[in-house]
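Researcher: Go.
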Amino acid sequence: MDTDMYDEYGLERSYDDSEEDYDSCDAFDEDHYTYLALCMTETDEGGSEGNSSADTDLDQNLSWVAKKAYHLLINDSSASILSRAMFPDFESIYNKILQTELRLSPGLVEALQAESPPSHSQILSFHLDDFDGRNEFCVYMQVFQRDEEYILTIYCGSSTHIRGGSKRLLQYDSFLEDGTYASSMPKLIPQLAKDGWKRSAALVIAAIPIPDSNHDISYSKGLILLLETLFTTAFWFHCANTNGSITTFSLWDRSETLKIWKGACTGGSALKEAVEGRIGNPLTESYSPSLLAEMKEMRAKRARYRKAQKKANETPEETKARLEKDQIRKRNQREEVQMKETAEEKKERKAKHAAQFLHSKTILAASLTPEEIAERKKKKNESDRIGMAKKVASENTEQREKRLAMKRKSEAKGRARRKATETPEEKAERNRQERVRHAKRVAKKNAKSAAPPTNSA
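Model: Structure:
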């Protein structure tokens, strides 16, 4: 299971379903990757009894795969809620296997049913001879060897790109040839290449023709992910010795398989990826409210992760542009809401904002010392003074008159408010101060009029 592009549940798998174009797809060598049919090929000498026996073996193999897949699904605690809804029982899996015309590599199921793990030669024979890379989804194995080591290192993944499974397989080719697509490689593949491991085989072990309808495509993608989980767990291609609730579904003891291969898969169960954003929503009409709520939360979690990743990788210029864009968007949203609201809604909104501001101010004041409060007031007053000075310096006559009129109006309101609430003692003191100020103004005026005129000459 690929793990470096899909974020939401600890997995990174978005490359399989991306719309990224890859020119080499048009030049794909269909003999390079082989496609296999689980159906027994008819021999020239075979008669009706041979065909009947082959059909029976085919049904038994498909039934065995469906049963193993179902038991794994119901016990995998990391399986998505959508995967459980798509495949609620054994019959649903078995019917989808038949409907999708699933094909498995010859000898694969027999090897899984054996008491001992398959040998090197058996593993390298698991492939489909005529895999149609442009028209089929697939489960694949990337097999690596190193000259001085006999043990294989195997990665099991899947490709559900709408343009066919070859798109993902060709990315491996490009990476191993010239290092391109490194960011979309599974976590351990670049490290294997760096440590001297060479790919000895790229094997397609299961394939499903890409359906025509979106509904069937979603089911085919879900089935591919289920099969990927089954094969990865049954062979135990995980790099860890244990992996939660799926550990018990390994078919052989780890001490036996480690003599033949070791795994390179790091992302856990592929059934985590069976979410609406990746495979679609084939059950839309039958979703329960709880399932819809669960899937909505999954989409939101995935969006939050991608947004955080994008922020972490952006430059300072991109950060500044994003913040400016967000401010413009939020201001436009506020203006749009305010244009539609009634007078009562506007009054309620302002009251709510005032209450929130007062609450925040109260909490902040409770956490500050008197010295910190005084310092904050001093800084605010200085900031207001500088702002007003800049505003006064840049205003024209009309703006100045408007500002002074608003100031006089505000002062008049303040005086009226104080007069309405003052006590008789405060009123007497105010009147006394007004008489003093009036006397000073009269004295200043008289002194100015009594002063002799200055000689301008």
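Model: Confidence is low (pLDDT under 50) at residues 1-48.
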